[in-house]
Amino acid sequence: MAIITISREMGSGGIPIVHQVAKELGYTLVDGDVIREAAENYDLSQEALQQIDEKPPAFIDNLDRQIELNMNRIQLIVLEQALKGDVVIYGRGGQDLLPNISSVLRVRVIAPFEERVERWAQREWIDPDLARSLVRKSDQQRAGFIKYYFDRNWTNPIEYDMVINTTRVSVEMATKLIAEAIKDPYLIEKDHTCKTRIKDLIIQKKIQIARLDDERIKDIWFNIDVAGCHVTLSGHVYSEAERQAVIDDTEKVEEVTGVTDNLKIINY
Questions:
Q1: For 96-105, what is the mean pLDDT?
Q2: Domain end point (choices 182, 217, 241)
Q3: How many domains is the chain partitioned into structurally?
Q4: d(CA 202, CA 67)
Q5: What is the C-alpha R_g of the chain?
Q6: Averaged confidence pLDDT in the chain
Q7: In the structure, what pLDDT confidence band is assigned to residue 165 with cuts at 50, 70 and 90?
């Protein structure tokens, strides 16, 4: 059950590498097109996708809650695709959505800033100054997205299994390196263990979506832990009615086999 996640910088050449890897291995590519096609089934409008996809929050309370709700819906699409196995997940914090799963190969594609600017200007037939502004803005947005939602430094190489600099490595060689790396025995995990973990992550994501979409829940300062389809709720809520709403939302998720309620009620 192989999963490859590829993070890229704008203008680094990540797009052709992603497509070539998926084609070479016969894997399903999970990218923006797949998310847009699935969006309607997850209560996501195309306008919402444009507003939130790989962007940091707005820091306006009501808007941020809606943004986070839609972000979790996008993440659910990615997780359910990952469960099928043999996929290439392109961007969208894919590696952070699949923690502690050793069968995930985490790849980052980079290139020097000025070279990326030149490539983007040539690709889009635009002025270099405009290209420079767009590349810088993209870097800032994606770094902010990863930092806010996953509390991680986007550029830290230790977070990746493989970092490819496309000024020195061709698309063909990058594809070959990734295709060989996914076969490494250190990345192999039993299918059952891997699928069980992803199923738990899917359940957790569905509960997160339910609590964000539930107007009865004033705030979301409580934790959702899932192990073997059993959910443990901890942290605090503001009232008994809110506690019951959290439990109701959790029990409505079909895959949940049991709920342990460790929630505390704190009245402010």
A1: 89
A2: 182
A3: 2
A4: 19
A5: 20
A6: 91
A7: very high
Amino acid found at 25: L
- Neighbouring C-beta atoms of residue 141, cutoff 10 Å: 15
- Domain ranges, residue 247: 206-265
Region class of 13: left (phi > 0), else alpha (psi between -120 and 50), else beta: left
- Report the pLDDT averaged over residues 134-158: 91
Structure tokens at 170: 């061709």
**162, 177 in Cβ contact below 8 A?**
yes
* pTM exceeding the 0.85 threshold for the entire prediction: yes
- Inter-residue contact 194 to 200 (CB < 8 Å): no
Percent of the chain as helix, strand, coil, to the nearest 5: 55, 15, 30
Residue 194 lies in a domain: no
pLDDT above 70 coverage of the chain, percent: 94
User: Are residues 12 and 111 in contact, defined by beta-carbon separation less than 8 angstroms?
Assistant: yes
Percent of the chain with pLDDT over 90: 74
**Amino acid residing at 101:** I
Secondary element (H or E) of residue 29 = strand 28-30
Cα 14 from Cα 164, distance rounded (Å): 10
Q: Are 166 and 12 in contact (CB under 8 A)?
A: yes
Nearest to 30 by CA among 70, 96, 75: 75
pLDDT at 189 over 90: no
Residue 32, domain CATH: 3.40.50.300
The whole-number pLDDT of residue 226 equals 97
pLDDT for residue 218: 84
175 and 236 part of one domain: no
Kind and range of the H or E element at 41?
A: none
DSSP three-state, residue 174: helix
**Closest to 56 (Cα-Cα) out of 134, 153, 142, 154:** 142
